[in-house]
Amino acid sequence: MGALLNTLELAPEFKCGVFTPSSIGAFGKDTPPNGTPQDTVMKPNTIYEICRVSGELLSDYYFSRFGVDTRSVRFPGIISHGTLPGGGTTDYAVEIFYAAI
To answer: What is the pLDDT of residues 12-23, one digit of tens each?
Structure first.
């Protein structure tokens, strides 16, 4: 969080945008899994998820307050050829790839 905050603080001075990767883990377990609206409940329950939401909110604040062009993308789990999925969306992605084959 410190690195992101420092970067956001410097962005207006250097007139640069800030891109931060996030995660679908930002939603937490209480977000509806189907038909999730753009604005929805985000109640994370792990420190990882809390940091993702905090980073997104900090970025939004620096955009609103200082005009910093911030972008955050919620990436799903990463799929590896050498490691089996360990839960979450990665399992679903592997399932649809195998189904397609």
So the answer is: 999 999 999 887
